[in-house]
Amino acid sequence: MEISAALDKLRNICSRQEKAPADILASLKRWGVETVHHQQILERLKTEKFIDPQRFARAYMRDKMKFDRWGFVKIRIMLQQKGIDKGIIDEVIGECDRDEYREMIGRELAKKRKSLKGTPYEIWAKLARYGSSRGYEMQDMERFLGNEL
User: Fold this and answer.
1) How far is CA 144 from CA 58, 75, 124, in A?
2) With contact defined as beta carbons under 8 Å apart, do 74 and 134 qualify?
3) Which of 36, 78, 86, 135 is the most exposed place for a label (fewest CB within 10 A)?
4) Is there a contact between 50 and 17 (Cβ–Cβ < 8 Å)?
């Protein structure tokens, strides 16, 4: 695929949905665009404001917390895998309302608690594993897990 065709296609895609730089590079590789042109295309899209890592990170975090109920740990790992800079990730996570985040964790753990059976220790362990798999930090889960023992 030629550079101009790839740029037009990427502009169209990025105008409909936020994309990370890693997503753009993956698309370019898949389309067979020569590797020497990847950075040039990426910079052009950044200059034209079609991609913005900070804007992507905010949208990604907002969607994953709202719809998938992910915690900060999982979001951080996934953003790092998408090639987002650590400074941007720290800034975006720092902007999140901690009280609202803790309320979400409480609701999710309470919902999971209803389906669990066993001794208090077993339930505590199951809830801790569940929360960890969702990316919740132990310090934020402790308030809710303390009631199980």
Assistant:
1) 27, 21, 10
2) yes
3) 36
4) no
Task: State whether 107 and 128 are in the same domain.
Answer: yes
Nearest to 51 by CA among 31, 76, 26: 26
Whether 62 and 42 map to the same domain: the answer is no
Query: What local confidence, expressed as pLDDT, does residue 3 receive?
Result: 84
Furthest C-alpha separation in the chain: 63
CA 44/CA 85 separation, integer angstroms:
19
Print the domain residue range for 12: 3-51
Cα–Cα distance measured from residue 52 to residue 101, given in angstroms and rounded to the nearest whole number: 25
- What proportion of the chain, given as a percentage, has pLDDT over 70? 98
d(CA 147, CA 142): 9
- Average confidence (pLDDT) over 36-42: 91
